[in-house]
Write a structure and sequence with these properties.
18 helices, 9-stranded mixed β-sheet, alpha/beta, elongated, 40% helix, 4-stranded antiparallel β-sheet, 15 strands
Length: 681
């Protein structure tokens, strides 16, 4: 009896680490990581669960006396081994979708491991081959204690060598205050600050008409800023949105084979750095840590690592079993409560790092990108001190009303911290001459489309985001811009304020110049947009068709309900002559999903990345159906065809730009087509 119980323990001690290592390798290959602690954690954590699981499986077999007597020791070992593999694999893969809250990209592909047919076949193969391996090969030593311990010790040693190596453990790159000099022109330019809250919904800001929650900090900033009513993010994931915001290109074209932002593309930070501007970033989302490649062009790039429970690191925290244990901790099986810092560093910490960067670069012109997570799921209760507590956890999978209330509390917490930070800027005499951009990387789903069969993640709640641009000395304060813009327009807009040329491969435009032309019919120089002085810098040149969205014929307005544009176009944001077609993208479930939002209509289309998933289309008339509840696919063929051609043209030219950037060339035909589609390479 003890002998058979030992065999169960031994099988669990080997099976647990094996499946843990498989899952760790899947995590490390699915996302760019420079640290491999997940390997070491997999060996330790999965063994700790595998051993009691193996013992329980062996004890269960011993209770079945007739079957137990017929099982030889090699066969018993094989059966327990496969039981541990199957149980841990199924539980872990089943828990992953509900626990990886902070990952917006598709995670490691565990679909194969969760398929019952796969596991059944693997189980039968294991109990057939196991006894052969354990009797006819050197692995028969596993039936002895020293053999099992030797193999497990090898797992521990090798994973420690890789996992505990110093590479990738530091979350900071560059210098807080680099010593490179600045020209007099740059030194007199404005400082640029991007504050980018994740998942900040436009309908939770009073500046955009929301009644709750109160957002006095954002309201005050909005009174000093230009408010863009129809800003569209290029993705519903942070990594893709920020990549597009930095490179002024679509997400699907800017990544290299290893999942990092390709350094063949010129980013906003690289242009600013080349002109002598001190560039810094403070980020709190693991998707845009320094391993993502988004740090190129930054003198200083700080990813604020969470305080992961049990001493885990970024890669280790993504192990499915770690996530399962974390879920058990949340549900009250542990007396120790979690803290916000176990998921991300809150706004007060991020703003403290921002103040350190700003203070360290006093007297020099700087650009700071500050990304925050306080409005991202999971949603936490705001405690009496104004911070966020994890004693009451809610995600979008739980009761919608409670999730919305917790989300609103996160908005209130963010607003209070923002107000405190802005007051600090004013007290330091930095606010008046500052260009401050408040923009959400993407929105968030609360109650909308919860019953959709597939999570498309490109509905307006995900991509229609707030965008406030505060210029120095109250220039254009309180102005409202009605036309549709893209977040990929921000790089050209920022460089315009500093009188710098935009990247030749960029698809975006200077939004401030466009809005000035629309109001006055004339273009101000970039310097005039931020100063009372005039005549500084050359007069900007614009193509004749700068306001054109497309040369393709647009479907005419009709009286046939949803099939045509409403006849009164003067009050519609989408009919504004400066509105630009906005393309957004997201990778999920083995497919690339793209949307195009133009002239009050929207087409969502998926392109499968394998032959097993069919194409998917949705068509909406946003004028009459702003919540995207009625799919008009097949009922408005003229609009479907128009938007489909638009989307195809933009995606085709985006891919061409990508190829030409990597090759170092860009042909005139590509540039001309992009201009007619509302892009400005």
């Amino acid at each position: 009896m003890p002998r058979r119980l030992f065999l169960g323990l031994a099988a669990g001690l080997v099976a647990g680490p094996i499946i843990g290592l498989v899952e760790a390798v899947g995590i490390l290959t699915a996302q760019p990581h420079n640290e491999y602690v997940a390997l070491f954690y997999a060996v330790l954590l999965y063994a700790a669960v595998g051993v009691p699981t193996g013992a329980a499986a062996a004890a269960s077999l011993m209770l079945l006396a007739p079957l137990n007597r017929r099982l030889s020791e090699p066969l018993l070992y094989s059966v327990v081994f496969m039981c541990v593999m199957m149980l841990m694999g199924l539980v872990n893969s089943g828990m992953v979708p509900g626990t990886l809250f902070l990952r917006e990209q598709s995670g490691p592909a565990n679909d194969g491991f969760s398929a019952p047919v796969f596991w059944a076949a693997l189980f039968l193969a294991g109990i057939w081959l196991g006894p052969i391996i354990l009797t006819r090969t050197p692995f028969k030593i596993l039936l002895k204690p020293r053999g099992t311990l030797a193999l497990y010790g090898t797992f521990v040693l090798l994973s420690a060598v890789f996992g505990l190596s110093p590479s990738g453990m530091d979350s900071t790159t560059g210098e807080l205050a680099p010593s490179h000099s600045q020209s007099e022109a740059i030194n007199k330019g404005p400082n640029i600050l991007f504050i980018v809250p994740d998942s900040l919904r436009i309908d939770h800001m009073a500046a955009y008409g929301a009644s709750t929650p109160p957002t006095p900090g954002m309201d005050e900033l909005a009174r000093d800023a230009i408010r863009f009513q129809q800003a569209i993010s290029q993705s519903s994931s942070t990594k893709n949105s920020v990549a597009s915001m930095f490179s002024s290109l679509l997400p699907s074209t800017v990544y290299s084979a290893d999942g990092k932002l390709d350094d063949d593309f010129v980013t906003l930070a690289e242009v600013l750095q080349a002109h002598g501007v001190v560039t810094g970033a403070v980020v709190t989302h693991s998707e845009i840590s320094r391993n993502s490649g988004l740090g190129q062009g930054f003198d200083y790039y700080e990813y604020l690592l969470p305080e992961y429970p049990w001493g885990a690191t970024q890669s280790a925290s993504q192990l499915p079993l770690y996530q399962v244990l974390l879920r058990l901790r949340w549900t009250g099986l542990s007396k120790n409560d979690s803290r916000t810092q176990h998921f991300y560093q809150p706004a007060d910490v991020a703003f403290r790092y921002a103040r350190n960067f700003i203070s360290a670069n006093e007297g020099r012109t700087w650009f700071l990108f500050l990304q925050l997570m306080d409005t991202h799921e999971p949603y936490f209760r705001q405690d009496s001190s104004g911070g966020l507590s994890l004693k009451d956890k809610h995600t979008r999978k739980q009761e919608p009303g409670a999730a919305a209330r917790r989300y609103a509390e996160g908005v209130s917490y963010l607003d209070s911290e923002l107000a405190e930070f802005v007051n600090w800027l004013k007290n330091e005499n930095l606010y008046e001459d500052l260009v401050l951009v408040l923009v959400a990387a993407h929105g968030e789903q609360l109650t909308e489309h919860r019953d959709a069969e597939q999570s498309i993640w490109l509905y307006d709640e995900f991509i229609h985001v707030p965008l406030l641009v505060k210029l120095p000395r109250h220039k254009r304060a309180g102005e409202s811009i009605p036309f549709q813009v893209r977040l990929l327009d921000l790089p050209a807009t920022v460089l315009g304020l500093l009188d710098m040329p935009a990247g030749t491969s960029w698809m975006g435009r200077n939004l401030l110049q466009i809005s000035t032309i629309m109001e006055t019919g004339q273009a101000e120089s970039p310097f005039d947009l931020i100063s009372d002085k005039s005549g500084a810098g050359p007069e900007p040149q614009f193509p004749d068709a700068i306001m054109s969205v497309s040369q393709q014929p647009t479907p005419e307005a009709t009286d046939s309900g949803n099939k045509g544009m409403p006849s009164d176009k003067t009050t519609l944001w989408s009919a504004h002559p400066a509105s630009m077609a906005a393309v957004s993208q997201h990778y999920i479930g083995g497919r690339l999903v793209s949307s195009i939002r133009d002239k009050g209509w929207k087409l969502i289309q998926s392109v499968p990345l394998n032959n097993q998933i069919p194409d998917m289309f949705e068509l909406f008339n946003l004028h009459e159906d702003p919540h995207e509840e009625l799919n008009l696919l097949g009922t408005a063929p003229e609009w479907q065809g128009y938007l489909s051609r638009q989307l195809s043209d933009v995606l085709s030219d985006s891919r061409r730009i990508s190829n030409e950037c990597r090759a170092g060339t860009m042909d005139n035909s590509t540039e001309s087509r992009l201009r007619t589609l509302g892009y400005n390479p």
